[in-house]
UniProtKB/TrEMBL annotation:
Lineage: superkingdom: Bacteria
PROSITE patterns: ENOYL_COA_HYDRATASE (PS00166)
Family named by the database record: Belongs to the enoyl-CoA hydratase/isomerase family.
Pfam families reported for this sequence: ECH_1
CDD domains for this protein: crotonase-like
InterPro entries: ClpP/crotonase-like_dom_sf, Enoyl-CoA_hyd/isom_CS, Enoyl-CoA_hydra/iso, Enoyl-CoA_hydra_C
Protein name, as recorded: Enoyl-CoA hydratase family protein
NCBIfam families in the record: PRK08258.1
Amino acid sequence: MSTQPEEHTMKHHKRPFAGYQAKTFLWQVSADGKIGTVTLNRPERKNPLTFDSYAELRDLFRSLVYATDIKVVVVTGAGGNFCSGGDVHEIIGPLTRMSMPELLDFTRMTGDLVKAMRACPQPIVAAVDGVCAGAGAMVALASDLRLGTPAARTAFLFTRVGLAGADMGACTLLPRMIGQGRASELLYTGRAMTAEEGADWGFFNALHESETLADAANKLAAQLAAGPTFAHGVTKKLLHQEWNMGVDEAIEAEAEAQAICMQTRDFHRAYEAFVAKQKPVFEGN
């Protein structure tokens, strides 16, 4: 039986994202087409999220699974702040008037954003300056790597508005990142984690001055984009999945994953470059 229709269908789903037109945030693509940057762009309100921006971010990260060009995503905020969380007037107010089914639709949608960020194969670099609070803190946490500035203040402040610290996966992702005791303190008290604490505890991979943060994030993103991006996607997938595996199961999953990566052209390119005493040029296949 011919497989042509299936192959055509798979190719049909793949598409470039350089021309993507965002409605609720800024979307820019680097000159080489490999790095997509999401800029939350409501600086007068410290870049809060709305119902629409939650949904559009979720849909973008879901769709990036099919991107033919974007290898890395940078998420940042405009005007010296990352994100102040859900907009008080456009989200918090309306939530007080919703029914339980409507509330559950909303909380599932916000969780779906984190799921989409973890499921997309591209590494995500969060560039965090200033306020990083609530849902904004969760967007940073859901990213793969985080760069901050001395001015960064990260607060999982759900308890400040009478809610549980259990929001968008915080109770599972944050303890993995900084430890159970530190996560418990932040989630119970809602206090802001300083940039220095974030760096010491492993939340931030590095700190940079505000004026150099964008360059540092782009440099890191370019480094990742120049690597074996198919293999990066495998690494991301197993970093996420292995928390739910025993050691033996994880070792087997990695054996299977590495055998798949050994079939890629990038693996062969690396060997051929080594033999030729050259630097490998990876193409992500």
